[in-house]
Fold these 4 entries.
Entry 1:
Amino acid sequence: MSDLLAYCQDRTDEMVDLLRACAEYETFTADKPAVDQFVSFLAGQLRDRGAVVERIPRREVGDLLLAKWNAGAPGRPITYVGHMDTVWPAGTLAERPLRVEGGRLYGPGVADMKGGIVVMLSAIRALQERGEMPDRPIWALLTSDEETGSAHSRELILKVARQSGLCVIIEPATAEGAVKTWRKGAADCRLLVTGRASHAGAAPEAGINAVVELAHQILKLNALNDLRNGTSVTVTMARGGYTNNVVPESAEAYIDMRFLKRAEAERVQEAVTALYPLLPGAQLEIIFGDNRPPLERDERMRATYAQLVRIADGIGVTLREDGTGGVSDGNLTASVGTPTLDGMGPTGEGLHAVDENVLISSLPERMAVHVALIQQWVMES
Ligand SMILES: [Zn+2]
């Protein structure tokens, strides 16, 4: 075993203590006062490790933190991206207190993603204690609304990603401990159909049936599916009309779209934009909602992951890669062309579920990988 890995394993208890301290803060996205308390705690932890910390206020969600080490050093930064919020409302901890069982720490938010925050903080601490902090800029952007779609942090994430040479997303690894080298992209939209109401008995010919028009559109949307290519287009809700003897004047549907490839995202979104009504006089309106491009396992991702594997091999850690249909802020950082590594937190299970837990032995292992990464990473030129 490498000296570094043994050093990190010696810190396992410290890491568990810090993770417990983080998870004791209940940080439901919608609970700004609660999230802000954790923001203050983390700002202290970051400053304690020598970072210059900027607290960026937000009115509707918790404040954001941007921490910088070696800001004056040459080169583009390695930027850690994590989120402080969880999907668990205050009171969850009383129902499901933190507990250790079978080498795992159970509790709300331990994997998604306070475990990742602890790994990052511990890696920085180790570099300092060992006198090995390289003279390169290291940033950490911690957001507070990832679980609800990053509406209040998206612009800052994109801006920081554009300035960075590598973004390291400290979301949990897969249940098998794999780094995430792909994530599907996601978009959604709402289709509104307007027809014309008329009495279904007295004057059906005077109506324009919005439900019939919507039915045509649903079949066109459904035909955009290409599951073998990783593309799904799912009409998730549909409704129309308001009473049983009137030609319906309005109808609407919600559509969930997922993509593995950027080209597929473009194909589908162009097709949706180009939808046109089939019934004379009917009108369509399309309202696009959230839109995150896929984190694609393209050439850049393959090269980025290959470098990580070489670094981890050097300290005796064997990595694996996998992917997921769920999105993260890694979808955003990769969308501006910045090399991105995702799933760089510890091994987690039961995300957003009642048995959420983190594999304790994966904490020091990931910590060692981050120490080596910060020391050795060679930026793409
Ligand atoms: Zn997360």
Note: The pocket of zinc ion is lined by residues 83, 112-113, 146, 171 (CB under 6 Å).
Entry 2:
Amino acid sequence: MLSLKEIGSKYPTNKNDYGFLDIYENYFKNLRNKNLNILEIGVDKGDSLRLWREYFINSRICGLDIDKKDFVIQNVEIYQGDQNDKILLNKIAKKYGKFDIIIDDGSHVSKHIINSFNYLFDHLRQDGIYIVEDLQTSYIPRYGGSRINLIKKNSSMNFFKSLSDSINYENFDRPFFKKHRFDGLIKSIHFYQNIVFVFKGQSAKYFHQNVKINFLDRLKKMLSFFFR
Ligand SMILES: C[S@@+](CC[C@H](N)C(=O)[O-])C[C@H]1O[C@@H](n2cnc3c(N)ncnc32)[C@H](O)[C@@H]1O
């Protein structure tokens, strides 16, 4: 059986050049024969879809691209549309049920990356993987990033860095803490050069999560927060 990299050598996707296939293989090798639903945003000439088609022999695969594609890939559905189009993303997701793997290799614009993640996260199944490629664009202003401000609001890298706090939300020691949408829903986030893997799932229950704090203790906690 050919490895992902070996299959990749047949298809000139830039996933080869950026070294992503070795990383992907680590996560995908145990999923290879399963019946998965896979969505990739960004089709270009269709090479990565052909790659996934050949690698995931039992999966349903679809792609989305803003440009119309005049080629057909057997057993792959290609949608035309914008990755910011919530209605379209919902429509695709409805047809597939939940996705097991979502890969964003689309516009690489920070705002679009964040929009798609926000829209599609609910359509990712528990234990599913959400991957975003080419995050070097987070350091390029024309993609909505910044070369100098590494904590720029709404840059893609800053979004995923902040998201990592959702893994530890139970430890936040803030008196008026309001749960964020992704808190407790993300098991882990793995960063590599220019690519991130977000694993959906519950983080391990923190040991004191169920301990009820009475009013007096809560008050003490608040005061100690302000006077420490
Ligand atoms: C890097 S290419 C995809 C490469 C492909 N995944 C591969 O590995 O062979 C990026 C693609 O994203 C598409 N794209 C750009 N903006 C988009 C958007 N807003 N929504 C959906 N697709 C978009 C482009 O038309 C282009 O085909």
Note: The mean pLDDT is 92.
Entry 3:
Amino acid sequence: MTFDAQTELQSASLTQAQPASTHAVRPRVGIIGGGVAGSTVALRLAQQGQLDVVLMEQGPSLVNGPPMCHLHAGGNLYREISDEQCLKLLKQSIDTLKLYPHVVNVRPTVIAVPTRDAGDPMALLPRLEKLKAAYAELVARDPDNARLGPPAHYYRLFDRQQLESLRDAPLPEVPQSPEQWMVPLAKSLDFDSVQWPLVMVQEYGLSLFRVAASAELSLAQFPQVEVMCRTRLLDAKPRGAGWALQFEQDGQSRTITVDYLVNACGYRTGTLDDVLGEPRQRLVEFKAAYLAHWPEAQGTWPEVIFHGARGTPEGMAQLTPYGNGLFQLHGMTESITLFKSGLVASDGHSAQPRLAPELEAKIQRGWPEAVVDTRSRAAIAHMSHFLPEFANAQPGGKPLFGAQQIPGTDPSLRAADVSFGRQRYARTEIVKASSALTAANAIVAQLSEQGWVDGQELSLPAINRDEVVARAVELAESRHYPKQLALPSGG
Ligand SMILES: Cc1cc2nc3c(=O)[nH]c(=O)nc-3n(C[C@H](O)[C@H](O)[C@H](O)COP(=O)(O)OP(=O)(O)OC[C@H]3O[C@@H](n4cnc5c(N)ncnc54)[C@H](O)[C@@H]3O)c2cc1C
């Protein structure tokens, strides 16, 4: 098995590979893929100080893959996943904020169960109680874990009467209390479209662009890490106890050797598994979120989730607020976020699930404008079932989209991290950004067992928040997205 780039591979001229380094020298780790997973592994390994790291990313900058807008500190968006996954996501999210402190948009998430939905809001409570207790325990163990506010306030309920009383309340510029956060929703919600009570939970937003900027600026502080963007791995072969990696950069093919290989290729992880002859079962799902301008939007919004049965026309609707009337929308139906044949599985012949050509084309070459318009308008209509005035919103530009991998066969899996193949080979298999650090820690633990590193706890030199924001804005603009997606928003 080979990469899709087989023809280029055949015509490429190989330079002489050096033998894999020995432990008398410093071991070198090669990481393929500079998404949040690969970048986080690179940071954790760099911090150990005993390794050299090469991070290859085919795109022009780090973290340029599928979007991320929600931290998932408790997994409350997903009714269908286990409590165990939710607890894992809670802890992973808190740890992620220690690694990347400038990436979060501090605003709560409001969860509503629609009237048309078969669910019951009270059925959400046992899990919320478990999460609150687990959060309290984490904070009791280490006060630095209190990243989501006081544990006693992790969630709270609002009944219809409370929301009615907030309808005429003044709109605060910077909300200071749960009630103040509810005011914009109280003014816009169709009260009959949802069941009561509503839940407000301290699940915050995430800025993809500030994650990208944080990863880039943090890695720049470590001379032992070589970040190679616009660099595509073409082939990998065993060489001594390590690996020879053939890659293309600036139209030239070159080879380096590494002692340990990390496959962090995101939805293309299976392509490298195939090259190495490593069988693995996984799913890949293509999804998209849309931008909308709602100039009449008033006040500072929380994130709002309207639950719904996934894949049906009444699938979950997610409203993610940014500044200046810009919102990001998900609608878990086939006409909005999901796609016909958008979920594909690997088979006995290949570890790489194959997306339909039209979906792969969307990733590689972008979207026809008419499709952007139709799907953005469908997303706006989906949301206006609950917020009638949202029907006046207009499509807000290029969608956020991409494919993500899900290891195994369960499409609802949300908390996954890493798996190890043959000796000196690891693959990150995260479904949510907050799992990247768990994957990185597991790789550090394995290398520590082998005596390559000491396995030091996480501790990184601080990076400047203003620099992160400035770089994030540059990245957003270079990728043709509004700069609001990069700016800190919320209270
Ligand atoms: C619509 C949508 C919404 C989402 N929302 C959220 C959210 O709110 N919160 C959240 O936590 N997660 C969200 N996710 C999931 C999240 O985007 C992914 O889990 C995350 O991006 C995976 O990171 P990764 O580093 O594993 O993969 P990627 O980000 O895909 O990175 C893999 C990298 O490998 C590179 N690469 C691949 N092959 C090669 C090669 N041969 N040579 C060199 N480089 C290569 C690619 O260019 C890419 O940059 C969402 C996903 C989608 C699709």
Note: The mean pLDDT is 93.
Entry 4:
Amino acid sequence: MRYGLEMLPTGLALVDHYRQKPPLSVDYGSPSLRLRQKKISAKGELLVRAVKEKPGARVLDMTAGLGTDAFILASYGHDVTMLERSKTVYLLVKDALKRARQDAELKPVVARLTLHHWDSTRPFLPAIGFDAALVDPMFDEKKKSALPPGNMQMLQAFLGRGAELQPFLTAAQELGIRRTIVKRPRLDRAPAKNAVRPVYQLTGRSSRLDVFFNQV
Ligand SMILES: C[S@@+](CC[C@H](N)C(=O)[O-])C[C@H]1O[C@@H](n2cnc3c(N)ncnc32)[C@H](O)[C@@H]1O
């Protein structure tokens, strides 16, 4: 089998047996995340700006992935419920959260994160009363863009691409969530002719956030 989960001294990791690539594991205490966390502000973090709430808002991350976005929002002070469809990715994040709870600096941050193994296009009934939803699946891109950095590259190779936006928007609307934030590569094409259009966009260096308002 090409991929396997292995418990390494650094934590649970996804190993690619065909390629000489570093194993994929999640570490919320990495130097780059700690630095980003220290500098966090509504002005500097596009995602925080898109949520547009004071610390303490409730955000539903419908595509948790490695949980970086959720961790950033929790570092700002938001409470984030993370839904992840892949059991493997869910286990990697679960292990990282367990390790982070042992770290005095990270503990109060990860206390604001709740993780579930769930396909978020199916109604997640406990998710009532959320202020915003975040959607960052791996969309099929019409135009070839640069490969994503490090861990995301391996995640993409492991999971593959292919997601449609509408089922997420419908699920968020059914849950009565007013604001849905969709993350896309910065240079991703405008939505197809008949597709629902965002109310506004925030553009960063490598990604773009499309903000939709739901009728609730
Ligand atoms: C690009 S990653 C998300 C990265 C994440 N924003 C982060 O900061 O690490 C996309 C993730 O969405 C998950 N996903 C895709 N469709 C999903 C669905 N319907 N329900 C839950 N998770 C889903 C994939 O399994 C994958 O782990």
Note: The pocket of S-adenosylmethionine is lined by residues 63, 65-69, 83-86, 89, 119-121, 136-138, 159, 163 (CB under 6 Å).
